[in-house]
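Example 5.3 — Colanic acid biosynthesis protein WcaM
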Amino acid sequence: MRKNFKLTPPSFSSSRRKLLKASSLLAAVPLLVPRCVLAAAGKSEASVQKFYNGDWIAAFKQAFAAADTVSVPADLVCDNINTAIFMPEGKTLHVAGGLKGNGKGRFVMQDGCQILGAKGGRFNNITLDVRGSGCTIKGIDMSGFVPVTQIYIGGKEKRTMRNLVIDQITVHDANYAILRQGFHNRMENVKITNGHFRHLQGDAIEWNVAINDHNLLISDHVIENIDCTNGKINWGIGIGLAGSTYDNEYPEDQAVKNFVVANITGSNCRQLIHVENGKHFIIRNIKARNINHTFSQKAGIDNATVAIYGCDNFVLDNIDMKDSAGFLIGYGVIKGKYLSIPQNFKLNDITLDNTQMPFKSRGIQISSGNATSFVAITNVTMKRATLELHNKPQHLFLRNVDVMQHADAGPALKLNFDLRKDVRGRFMAKEDTLLSLANVRAVNENGGRSVDIDRVDQVHVNASGLNFALPVATK
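Solution (predicted structure tokens):
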């Protein structure tokens, strides 16, 4: 997922407004004027139409210079937005009508800027470029295949930006919806909520190389019909987050971290949620339908509802999948080199029902390991799918697992602990290992036992409530 975009927006450096003029104006105000009047001084709103003289770009610049809030009325369409328009700090753009561009136009949001939509407020082929703290984007409709992304969060200036809110937006018939390039700067306290993303070529939300960011909430979104048909590699994911270079020590400064993805409804795409080199995160309350390989066929990405690569300390909770590829939790790999393996995670309340799926598809495939690590898999129900585990964490727990797979597709439960002759075996835990199984049932469509376990050599083995026998433990 880690992508090298050719998006090269200009390097903008924000300039704080001078306070001298404002101070001189306040000094001239009589001292007896009530404070509330002073607080309201300078607050104003103007329609951009009042400044139009054949050039909408000039009109917006003049309007922002004259008023704190600039409005686009419902019956107005501002077209030919083909270059950058800087919103001065603290300004608001209120859109009830439409704005159209050629893909080169953008509104550059500096500290305290807001872009707020009323019913019918829409942008077409214009990028919103977030370059400051305290910014809000809310209630707008965005579309257009010309720019790479509708909302761009990044820049090359080394700074910290805080308190970004993106809420109640609709993005459709576009490439990317939201793209964050996070290598150069830091975002803190970001909330991206209540969005509707549909008919996209690229990702709905891409948080790329975001190694500096802290406290990110992505929640309450509907994602549907993401299908990359333009031949772009690694395009076409619902929500994707990535750190930097894989490292099995999982250093904090290389990982995307401290985020929550929650309350997502997704359908009709190749991959719904994707995390590379992440740690300290939660993915919960996901409802997925029709996640399969027929979408984004040339994008070169795995087919999975949730794909996790080289991550540490995370939770997947309450994931409901139907007629969909399941999970891929696997190694961090670059150019064929296995650099890291997932560790310290929990899967809980997972359902996957592929009884009506017309394709043979991935169930839940997990690789995990490392000397001091744990994996807990609890309350899992899978129909016509395989639960497959590779390599060996130090402590592995399976509780309340019920898996059914058709016999012609292979076993319902596969435990492949023996990687002694495999290069990936270097990630195996060897000291004080524990395998604990309770209430685990693995059957074929006729109810017969359906398991494949190559070797059990854990130091401690606890098993109860199994419908199959474990191989005799070997040391």
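Remark. The chain has three helices and 36 strands.
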